[in-house]
Amino acid sequence: MEVSVVTTTFNEVERLPLLVKRIRRILDRVPHEIIVVDDGSTDGTYQVAKRIADKVVVTNRLGQTFCLWLGMKLAKYDKIITLDADLENNPKYIPVIIALLNKFDYVHVSRKQLPRVGEKLSSSTIGRILGVTDLFSNYRGVKKKLVEEINVSPGETFGAEILLRSWIKGAKIINVTVTPEPRRPDSRVGRSLKGEIRVLLATVRVLIKMVYLVFLRFFS
């Protein structure tokens, strides 16, 4: 039942303590560690994380996907869970993920409703190929042995590259669908044209990497 929980932050000084408190409460009787990778926050998130997390790493705007992968590499337990620090991923599902990791290599937690057109499009195309319904979800459970076999390259894909490279490795993946938490007020920017363009660009990156990795796997 031992588990490492990884999150990445950028200016989450108010939300991080709430997230850590919820995780600690849910894992009260479970040996665990909380790893925070702070991607260059300027609001004091790092200082708060040092007080309440078990491991803290500072990076300089390397992107959410790379930071999560870096934190996963630092995990000491065989079961690893990643989630966003903004409270949109409810920690109450962590026990379910832990249980499923007894049978699967990768547990992908998908949102039941997707807010952006780009997310819906990418999930109904690339996501369907990979066997998930929410391509860009960062709420996942992964076995450490799988993490040790994959690498993540630069270029933000909102977590999708971790899923893609696990799929390429032949990981046994299960998709779990949950009702998402209400979006925080400042998330409205994510529904703007700029947000849609970012998602579509990430989708293109994932598609290109998918074609490239599949080619290497079967033709190299």
Explained architecture:
With 220 residues, the chain is α/β, with parallel strands linked by helices. The protein has one domain: Spore Coat Polysaccharide Biosynthesis Protein SpsA, Chain A. The protein has eight helices and seven strands, in the order E-H-E-H-E-H-E-H-E-H-E-H-H-E-H. It has helices at residues 15-26, 45-52, 64-73, 94-100, 117-130, 144-147, 160-168, 193-219, and strands at residues 3-9, 32-38, 55-58, 79-82, 106-111, 140-143, 173-178. Strands 3-2-1-4-6-5-7 form a seven-stranded mixed beta sheet, with helices on both faces. Helix 5 (117-130) packs parallel to helix 8 (193-219) and helix 7 packs parallel to helix 8. The chain is globular. The model has no long low-confidence stretch (mean pLDDT 90).
Order of helix and strand elements from N to C terminus: EHEHEHEHEHEHHEH
Please give the radius of gyration in angstroms: 16 Å
Largest sheet strand order: 3-2-1-4-6-5-7
- Under CATH, the homologous superfamily reads Spore Coat Polysaccharide Biosynthesis Protein SpsA, Chain A
**Structural class of the helices, strands and pairings?**
alpha/beta
Overall mean pLDDT: 90
Query: In one word, what is the shape?
Result: globular
Q: Quick one: biggest sheet?
A: 7 strands, mixed
Low-confidence stretches: none
